[in-house]
Design goal:
Elements (H helix, E strand, L loop, with lengths): L1 H11 L2 H30 L5 H16 L1
Length: 66
Amino acid sequence: MNLGRTIYNALFRRTSTFVVTIVVGGFIFERVFDEGMDNVWENMNRGKLWNHIKHRYAEDADEADE
């Protein structure tokens, strides 16, 4: 109960701190979710994305120039 009261008094008692808490929480959630979904996408498409296969084509382009 004491932890709940401390959190309430620190973050939710005043409207201004409540709004700041919500905005900061939303920003942190967005960053964590975005990074997590990028990692899921990279793992599901491993070997199909440009940053995974560009070494194959970059060497071919260098040899074609010579």
